[in-house]
Each structure stands twice: as structure tokens, then as C-alpha cells.
Amino acid sequence: MKEEAVKAKGGIGETIRTIIYAVLIAVVIRTFAYEPFKIPSESMLPTLMIGDYLFVSKYSYGYSRHSFPFSMAPISGRVFEDLPERGDVAVFKKPIGEPIDYIKRIVGLPGDKLQMINGVLHINGAAIKRERVEDFVDRDRFGNARRIARYRETLPNGKSYFTLDETVQGIMDNTDVYTVPDGHLFAMGDNRDNSTDSRFLSHVGYIPVENLVGRAEIIFMSLDGSAAWYEIWKYPVAIRWNRIFNPLS
Question: N or C: where does the chain have the smaller number of CB atoms within 10 Å of the terminal CB?
Fold first, then answer.
């Protein structure tokens, strides 16, 4: 009986150690390598849809206190800092108000001057290339469709992506000139008339480089909203199969 008790105690101890090791490994991976992120809004349509799950690389821009769980690391600034490129889709901590995670496209680097004129982004006095393409057709789970004007934008570095323009009279289609301060970035959502981003200086504004969490890399799962995460039996119908493993540009 004593031997059985010792074995049982040893088995429980081994199980606890295994769980602790697994948690530590998960924390290390999430802190220094990749972190999963779920898209909660339409601000990055058509690039990202509500229900997309993606991996964010934590090492792409170096590490700050925001790289760690609950931003608790005693780090000032960034370690191994590397600035984003224009066009990167990045996750960052919202600098104004509650520091929640935001995901937007980086379009302005330190020192850049940006302005929206008639819905066209201008960088350092020059309009970026913007071409009208076929409409974006968005269907809900009931089959209802809406059509939104879609454009292909190309930044000065050659990075190309799609944006949406729901109205020609959006409140941020014409703006003053924004001058990005040192140590900061300027980010915008691809859904230009449905994104609270750096254009709104009192809500988001310029993003401190320190607030970067990582670069969005790839969509690993996408659910259309017809199934809760635990309703695995509905996944075959609810999964947007054509979006899985799509790299982000």
C-alpha cells in the first residue's frame, strides 16, 4: 500500500511538473516568437475579416515591455529595435486611453508628412498610386451581400494592398498635414471610412515605437461567425477555407 501511495504521489507530481513546463514553454513562445490574435472589427477589410485568427511575430521589431504578458516587463524603449516598413500590418498598444491591442497598416515613419486629399493618401507631398478595381462583395452568413468600392494602393517602397472606400465624403477623406514625430509611427486601417486610426489624433494619434507588439504574418484560422469557438462540429461549414494560411502583405 505504501508503494502504491508513493507511486500515486509521484505520478501527480510528474503531471504537475509537465503542466508547469508546458505553461512556461507557451509563455516563452508567446513572448519572444509568435502570439495569436483574433480580428474583432471590420477596420482592416478587405485584408482582414472579423473572425480571422492570425499569428503575430514578436521578434520582427524587437522587444519592449508590451512584448510580455500584461506589459509587465521592466523594459524602457525597445531591445533589438527594428522599425517597420511602410505597408506592414502591425499590432500595437493603443497609445491614448485604454492600452488595448490595435491592428492597422503602417503608412508613416518618423519624420514623414502625411495627408488625405479627396480620399487619396499623400506621403511627403506626393500622392500614392491608387487604382480602382472590382468591388469588394461582402456576404453575411445569411447570404446577404453588400458591395463596396475597392482600390489597389501602392506605397513608394512598392508595397501593394487593397483598401475600401465606402463613401466619397468620408470625414477623414480630407485632412490637415500630419508630421510624424521622432520615435513614432502613423497607421491607418484598410477600410478607410470605417477605421479609428492615427488620423484621429485625440483617439489614437501617432504610435510610439515602444507600443509595437509585432507584425501580422499569416492567417491560420477564419470563422464566419456561424459557430462559436467551442462548436467544433460546425467548423466544416463555418470555416472560411480559402483564407487559411494566407500570408499578410
Answer: N
Q: Which three cell numbers stand for residue 8?
A: 500515486
Nearest to 243 by CA among 41, 48, 4: 48
Compute the distance between CA of residue 219 and CA of residue 242 in angstroms, rounded to an integer. Answer: 10
Q: How far apart are CA 239 and CA 227, in angstroms?
A: 9
DSSP assignment of 121-134, as one string?
EEETTEEPEEEEEE
CB atoms within 10 A of CB 69: 10
43, 64, 195, 222: the catalytic one is 43
The pLDDT tens digits of the residues spanning 108-158 come to 999 999 999 999 999 999 999 999 999 999 876 667 788 999 999 999 999
Q: Enter the pTM of the model.
A: 0.84
* Catalytic residue chosen out of the listed positions 58, 93, 104, 222: 104
Q: Cα(211)–Cα(128) distance, rounded to whole angstroms? A: 27
Confirm whether 222 is a catalytic residue: no
DSSP collapsed to 3 states, 143-212? CCEEEEEEEEEECCCCCEEEEEECCCCCCCCCCCCEECCCCEEEEECCECCCCCCCCCCCCCCCEEHHHE
Name residue 68's amino acid.
Answer: F
- Per-residue pLDDT of 193-217, as tens digits, reads 999 999 999 999 999 999 999 999 9
Cell readout for 234 is: 460546425
The reply to whether 104 belongs to the active site is yes
Closest Cα to residue 163, out of 151, 176, 145, 180? 151
